[in-house]
Amino acid sequence: MIKSLRLRLFALVAAITLLVWAGAAIWTGMSARAEVERVLDRRLVEAARMVAALDVATRKTGDAPAPIHYSRDLSCQIWSLDGGLIGRSAGSPDAPLAGGKPGFTERVVGERRWRVFTHVDPDQGIRVMIGDNLAIRERLVRDLLLGLVLPAVAGLIALGVLLWLAVSRGLRPLGRITEAIATRSPESLAPLELEPVPSELSPLVRAMDTLLLELDTARQAERAFVANAAHELQTPLAGLKTQAEVARRASDPSMREHALERIIVSVDRTSCLVRQLLDLAAQERHESRAGTWVSVDEVIATIEQDYRLIAQRSGRQIVTACSRRCPEVALDEYALRLAIGNLVENALLHGAGNVRIECALDTDFELRVIDFGVGIPKEDQSRVRRRFERGRGVGTTGTGLGLPIVQMAIAAAGGILEFRTCQNGFAAVLRFPSPAFRVTAPRGTFSEMAPALSRRSRRRGR
Questions:
Q1: Domain that holds residue 421
Q2: A single GO molecular function, which one (predicted)?
């Protein structure tokens, strides 16, 4: 396979040109041969009639027949109707050139092949035969075609050179694009800005400029993410070091105990931040998780078991209020558990009262996590979707990564994160469009499934 675009274009154009020229050459050769045959046959007809007219004139005057001089390529015979030879041209064979019927015939006489026209004149009682040597005729046609082919070959060679130069010149903008990319610094992600660009290459240049812009945006986002992550890690680590120094130097047991408790809080916060950073990185590596179906009720039952102890420590409960027709969602189980778990964790950390999980099935499927706190103010709802952004009043207890993780986890199934104010509470809603969920047979209530899931978790832990 030809890898060079220049060679490929030249080969395609040259092949098409050769095909067209070959067809034209065949048509020209056939037309030229037919035309030569027609002209030479016409010459035979005219020569036969002329000889017949001359013979009539000489016989009327009573003079001896005039000698007939033709080249060896064209032979003439004059026969009487009773079969006697009246006259013939020099070099003409003694045997009749044709059988005697008027019109054209082809015959081999004297090791030569002749095309003969026979003209019969009943009034004069003669039969005139004019023969054309077919070998000479074939040579004439061959010379004519050779005269056409040689200029055509020379023209094809010249056309090939011109085509190569034209293709090379036509591909010169690609060379400019290659040079612009090759001479660019790896740190530069600015658009190429190549003008003018042929219309055929404009989509390529626009696509590359768009890609460079997206790469620049991604790199800036990555730098901001690293900077924010370093800042977020620095705070609990600094507090951890400070509390460790206090615990080491404290002589008062109560002060040492307080410092150790603060160390535990800092470790928990750092652990939560590292866990969420790992979750975020995992979602970025596997953005497309749609295609496998996961049971929503099983995931909710697992979440209820995982966060029950956290809720009990604060004297709260996780209440599930989903019907037995809770559907399956076209999402990876880990991604759905991650999304619901982050919403439940936020509700337990920043909300008030029990946490309620509801399911609503209509045109879309909605999963709602409701707490009875003040919720997120409307002016902050767009901001908290960004990484490391917290709502007002949260303080330093949050990492600002929970909601971005939720959005990224459900994006593969077309899910949308929404915030709503409900009666005496605030709801974080995961809404999935109709192609992303399906309703299956009921699997049982959460209270029925919880013991089985707990036993399954214990078996996995062994």
A1: 287-461
A2: ATP binding
Helix, strand, coil % (nearest 5) of the chain? 55, 15, 25
Regarding whether 146 and 22 lie in a shared domain, the answer is yes
Helix (H, G, I), strand (E, B), or coil: what is residue 360? strand
Neighbouring CB atoms inside 10 A of 315's CB total 7
Instruction: Tell me whether residue 182 is in a domain.
Output: no
3-class DSSP state for residue 298? helix
> What CATH number should be reported for the domain holding residue 256?
1.10.287
d(CA 78, CA 110): 18
pLDDT tens readout for residues 356-393: 999 988 888 999 999 988 888 888 888 888 776 766 65
Grade residue 207 by pLDDT with cuts at 50, 70 and 90: confident
Whether 74 and 47 have beta carbons less than 8 Å apart is answered as yes
Q: Is residue 430 part of a domain?
A: yes
> For residue range 217-260, what is the model confidence (pLDDT) as tens digits?
777 767 766 766 666 666 667 777 887 888 888 878 888 888 88
Q: 138-141 long-range contacts, Cβ below 8 Å, gap at least 24?
A: 140/36, 140/40, 141/32, 141/33, 141/36
Cβ 250 vs Cβ 256: under 8 Å: yes
Task: Give every CB contact of residue 406 below 8 A, 6+ residues apart in sequence.
Answer: 338, 339, 342, 343, 417, 428, 430
Are 258 and 292 part of one and the same domain?
no
The token duo for 98 is 């044709």
177 in any annotated domain: no
pTM metric for this prediction: 0.49
253 and 390 both lie in a single domain = no
245 shares a domain with 298: no
How do 293-295 and 328-330 pair as beta strands? antiparallel
The 3-state DSSP class for residue 224 equals helix
Please tell me the predicted confidence (pLDDT) of residue 367. Answer: 92
Reported as a pLDDT band with limits 50, 70 and 90, residue 441 is low
Is 392 in the same domain as 355?
A: yes
Predicted confidence (pLDDT) at residue 459 exceeds the cutoff of 90: no
Tell me: do 213 and 257 sit in the same domain: yes
> For the chain, what is the mean pLDDT?
77
In whole angstroms, what is the distance from residue 352 CA to residue 373 CA?
Answer: 4
DSSP string, 153-188: HHHHHHHHHHHHHHHHHHTHHHHHHHHHHHTS-TT-
Residues 340 and 440 in one domain: yes
Helix (H, G, I), strand (E, B) or coil at 116: strand
The count of structural domains within the chain is 3
The answer to whether residues 273 and 236 touch, using CB atoms and an 8 Å cutoff, is yes
Q: Does residue 329 contact residue 413 with C-beta atoms inside 8 Å?
A: yes
Nearest to 130 by CA among 57, 58, 55: 55
